[in-house]
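User: Structure please.
Assistant: Input sequence and predicted structure:
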Amino acid sequence: MKDCAVIILNWNGRGFLELFLEGVVSKSPGCDVVIADNGSSDGSQAYVRENFPAVKLLEFDKNYGFAGGYNRAVSMVGNEYVCLLNSDVEVTDGWYKAPLAYLRDNDKCAACQPKILSWKARDTFEFAGACGGFMDVLGYPFCRGRVVSNLEKDSGQYDTVSKVFWATGACFFTRRADYLANGGLDECFIAHQEEIDLCWRFNARGRYVAVVPESSVYHVGGGTLNASNPYKTYLNFRNNQLMLYKNMAGMRYVAVFMLRIASDYLSAVLFLLQGKSKDALAVVKARKDFHKMRSSLSLARKENLQKTTVTISNLNGVYKGSMLAAYYLAGKKTFQELMPNKS
């Protein structure tokens, strides 16, 4: 057994396996490659067995979602380190070496990611993670290389290792022990922002998260849900509220909660004005379902706050103002304009 398992979660993604799995296997000689199949019905399992006999195949009885599938897979492997890798990622030569070396050399680092570039526009950062994730005072995520929907060209402007708030689930390196000890991905999220929630726990409990841009991969993005799918809108708005409730304490949470009510409903109105009525309804449903789910997470909130040793104002990767206000009102479209000291 090698010390790192690259775990690819698959659900009816045979097309991506045919496109990218050979490259992952050939370019990851220092890792065990594992396919965790979430009950696919498209022949994915047979394809892996027939074409990649050296790849470990975990076959689940149904689709447990992104969070549930990865939790089951991580619990079933015995490697010291794991990399959660999306099936729609093209890796590069030596892609895993720098992130793993960084984890080995930095005990306080709980998770890291490489630079995430777009598979479709290869000189451009990809939406989901770019060059490391940040969060603003209201809980909205953004990245080095991606603010709102503005994706920057990669010209080496973010090629330094940096502490960040979150690492993307598209290519997420961590120690298996850290992952399990901190509860893994929250399965009630199903998908979207569950990695940010986990990274918040890492940060709040005295560890940190980093981006290691010496390594890079290319991400297709939207392999399961594309950006125009209202269900994606629903998950992002609902899960962001769940994350804030689970992790943010005291009067700060109350203030953010009130501001986010106004902000989220304003987003719904803007969707309507853009002719995106289904997205507007998704935002409203997300708010309603958050209220229904909140009580079921009260114990998780209590545990998180009890284990918090670093308050949000002192966490890495938090922008002290409103990212949306800076973007739409002040015209700050790039990360360098938003946080010049963190570039």
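The CA atoms of residues 67 and 187 lie 5 Å apart.
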